[in-house]
Design a protein that fits this description.
Strands 1, 2, 3, 4, 5, 6, 7 and 8 form an 8-stranded parallel beta sheet that branches. The chain has one domain: Aldolase class I (TIM Barrel). It has 14 helices and 8 strands. By secondary structure, the chain is an alpha/beta fold. α2 packs across α9, α3 packs parallel to α4 and α4 packs parallel to α5. α4 links the parallel β2 and β3. The structure holds S-adenosyl-L-homocysteine (SAH). S-adenosyl-L-homocysteine binds next to loops.
């Protein structure tokens, strides 16, 4: 697809043409990655954060938010839910938390590997080479870090202060890739100040970085953040998210693409199904213990009221309703496997 064609799709208002785009993406999804939908259990193990990202409810400027970091035993108990439900991957996510040591995370990874043999994805923000290397050696498989937007000016507005340059973030992804991690990245759509044109660059960057897993979600204002009070200029944000998922599937057919939690938040639970129908092949149920979940409030969501079990059961039934199959095993990105074979 040329950049002009992509732009046409993004601007398209004719419902039939939009549905045609989704159908095309769905066919390509079936052809390249098949009918299995892989689940990833996400454990939000810490909401401590050193950063001041203006969109995120965990940012360190936010007073009054109770902070927590789960113990290793609590993390292992949560990971057990994956093992019990045949979910092959556990995702460990936190704020930009520098309150745990490299070795602490090594122990977490080793224990999960030893007890359950799960695939381990890390989503711990911007980390340095040494940390990424140690965690890879301990058995971590994948690293997930969204670049959020490829618009440099907008990126700066979103990430005031140090430790927050766009190039640094891209460097982390490249380091992770060079260390042999499967890499995931992604964007938010609807950020105040974001232009439709910049989505073209985002899609191009997915290709340039050869990302193995691409998460696209709507920006959801958090009332207690600086950005939460600002106006969103882009129109029909949900629809734009589905369109970008579809275009991403068509332009990068072997990647894993989740129907994101943010989509399921703005379009309560239906977002999962709609995402699956326009190119997505992954869902990431949140398996953080319910008493911590509401404290990991990157944005307000009703989803945190569902227990881990309820959510997994609901997601599994959606998958069947969409005539798809619940994937078992690792669910590695074919994009990653193909890149590895090429060397
Ligand atoms: N500290 C980690 C994890 C951040 S939370 C990191 O920096 O990668 C994971 C993702 O949630 C972010 O990358 C961002 O894309 C998304 N997110 C954060 N705040 C959001 C909001 N208000 N609306 C929608 N998505 C948001």
């Amino acid at each position: 697809m040329t950049s002009d064609e992509i732009f046409e799709h993004l601007r398209e208002r004719d419902v039939n043409k939009i549905i045609e785009l989704y159908r095309k993406a769905d066919k390509i999804r079936e052809k390249y990655v098949g009918n299995k939908v892989f689940l990833r259990g996400i454990i939000e193990f810490s909401n401590y954060c050193n950063n001041t990202c203006s969109y995120c409810g965990l940012n360190s400027n936010r007073p009054g938010l109770k902070r927590y970091r789960m113990s290793i035993d609590e993390i292992i108990s949560a990971a057990r839910i994956c093992a019990e439900h045949n979910i092959g991957t556990v995702v460990l996510q936190s704020g930009q938390d520098h309150g745990f040591s490299v070795d602490w995370m090594v122990e977490v990874i080793r224990k999960i590997k030893k007890e359950f043999g799960l695939v381990v994805t890390l989503s711990l923000g911007q980390r340095d080479y040494h940390e990424l290397k140690e965690w890879k050696a301990a058995g971590a498989d994948r690293y997930f870090l969204r670049f959020e937007t490829s618009d440099d000016e907008l990126y700066k507005k979103l990430h005031p202060g140090k430790n927050a340059s766009f190039t640094d973030r891209i460097k982390v992804l490249e380091m992770a890739k060079s260390l042999g991690y499967e890499i995931g990245s992604g964007i938010m759509i609807g950020i105040p100040g974001q232009k439709l044109e910049s989505l073209l660059d985002d899609i191009a960057l997915f290709n340039e970085l050869d990302v193995d897993m691409i998460g696209v979600g709507p920006y959801i204002p958090h009332p207690e953040t600086e950005l939460g009070k600002q106006k969103i200029q882009l129109q029909n944000v949900d629809e734009l998210v589905y369109k970008v998922i579809a275009i991403t599937r068509i332009t990068k057919p072997y990647t894993n693409i989740p129907a994101t939690t943010a989509l399921a938040t703005v379009n309560f639970l239906d977002g999962y199904k709609k995402g699956l129908m326009c190119g997505a092949n992954v869902i990431m149920p949140n398996i953080t213990p319910i008493h911590y979940k509401s404290l990991y409030e990157i944005y307000p969501t009703r989803l945190s009221k569902l227990s881990e079990e309820e959510l997994i059961q609901k997601i599994k039934s959606f998958i069947i309703e969409c005539d798809r199959e619940v994937g078992k095993g690792r669910g590695d990105s074919l994009n990653f496997l193909r890149r590895r074979e090429a060397f």
